[in-house]
Amino acid sequence: MESNRQQKINRLIQKELSEMFLLETKKMQGTLISVTAVRVSPDLGIAHAYLSIFPSEKGNELLQNINENVKEIRYNLGKRVGKQLRVIPELTFHMDDSLDYIENIDRLLNN
Fold it and tell me: Is the pTM above the cut of 0.90?
C-alpha cells in the first residue's frame, strides 16, 4: 500500500517525465514515448518509470538509449521539480509492454 506522499510523487514525476519525453520526441518524426506509470520506493530514493514506446520495433533501442542517458534525464528532472522535492530519486526505466500483450490477446481471440 502506497502512502499519499508516494502517490503524489508518482504523479509529479510521471507528469514531468512525460513532458520531457514529449519535447524530445517532437524532434524524431514517427516516434512516441509515453510514461504509463511511475512507482517510487517507500524511502523515495528510487523511481521505476514504465515506458510505452511507439512503434514497438524501436522500443528496445530507445530504452537502451534512455538508460544510457539516465543521469542527464535525472538532472533535467531535478531542474523541473527541485522546488517540490528535496531529493530527486534515482531513475530506472522499464518497458511497459501491456499494449502489445492486449493486442496479441485480441488477435488470438479474433482468429
Answer: no
